[in-house]
Write a structure and sequence with these properties.
With 239 residues, the protein is an alpha/beta fold. It is 38% helix and 20% strand. It has a single domain, classed as Acetylglutamate kinase-like (Carbamate kinase, 3-Layer(aba) Sandwich), CATH 3.40.1160. It is globular, with a radius of gyration of 17 Å.
């Protein structure tokens, strides 16, 4: 089996990856599927960090709009929800024999370690998957921005954004069947054309630090492993 092209990768998982399409909370089959894909990556050799979202429970900005709860509080609620996802993922990975650690940007001492850069490096260098929860620890920042920030801090070579679509399109493929899938696109073109694959701040942070981004469909068997080996899959965002 071909080995990883990369020494260290950061996988960004949306909260929706933890449940069935259009569902809520955590679905056991979906969780197991994600965990198996992560173990496949680890077998290829790279050090693996994972940033988890919380869209299967709530999105701070949207929840604030519909509930009337201030955005600041709603975002912290979302951060707590990422810890729920992270701890669930940890348990399943450990059952599969993959050592892990959950590190959080907000203090939940009974469940996870605080995110400290040197500690994260320590775990990665010992073959543990570092599951990064709690977002950036600050409101008004998405988990996409968190993924770009943590990738920069941990000197990852690539961010893999795992989604439910095949990559970056010129338009919404669910609404426009003629939408074009880009195999490769520059950071600048993503920003210039306002392609909403990730927050602009996340794209700019990756651009400024030379971190490639691969956007792919996590639900297609073998996609992540192929990307890790350097094969063309999804959309590559870089220079």
């Amino acid at each position: 089996m071909a080995k990883s092209k990369y020494k260290r990768v950061l996988l960004k998982l949306s909260g929706e990856s933890f449940c069935k399409a259009g569902g809520f909370g955590i679905d056991g089959d979906s969780l197991n599927s994600i965990a198996k894909r992560i173990t496949e990556i680890c077998k290829l050799g790279p050090q693996v960090a994972v940033v988890v979202g919380a869209g299967n429970f709530l999105r701070g900005a949207k929840f604030s709009e519909v509930s009337g709860i201030p955005r600041n509080t709603a975002d912290y609620m979302g951060m707590l929800a990422t810890i729920i996802n992270a701890c669930a993922l940890q348990e399943v990975l450990e059952k599969l024999g993959q050592p892990t650690r959950v590190l959080s940007a907000i203090d939940v001492a009974a469940m996870c370690e605080p995110f400290i850069r040197r500690r994260a490096f320590h775990h990665l260098e010992r073959g543990r998957v570092a599951i990064l929860a709690g977002g950036t620890g600050n409101p008004f920042f998405t988990t996409d921005t968190c993924a770009a920030l943590r990738a920069t801090e941990l000197e990852a070579e690539v961010v893999i954004k795992a989604t439910n679509v095949d990559g970056v399109y010129s338009d919404d493929p669910r609404k426009n069947p003629k939408a074009k899938l880009f195999e490769k696109i520059s950071y600048g073109d993503v920003l210039k054309n306002n392609l909403r694959v990730m927050d602009h701040s996340a794209i700019a942070l990756c651009r400024d630090n030379g971190i490639a981004i691969i956007v792919l469909n996590i639900f297609k068997e073998g996609n992540i492993s192929r990307a890790i080996r350097g094969e063309q899959v999804g959309t590559y965002i870089g220079e």
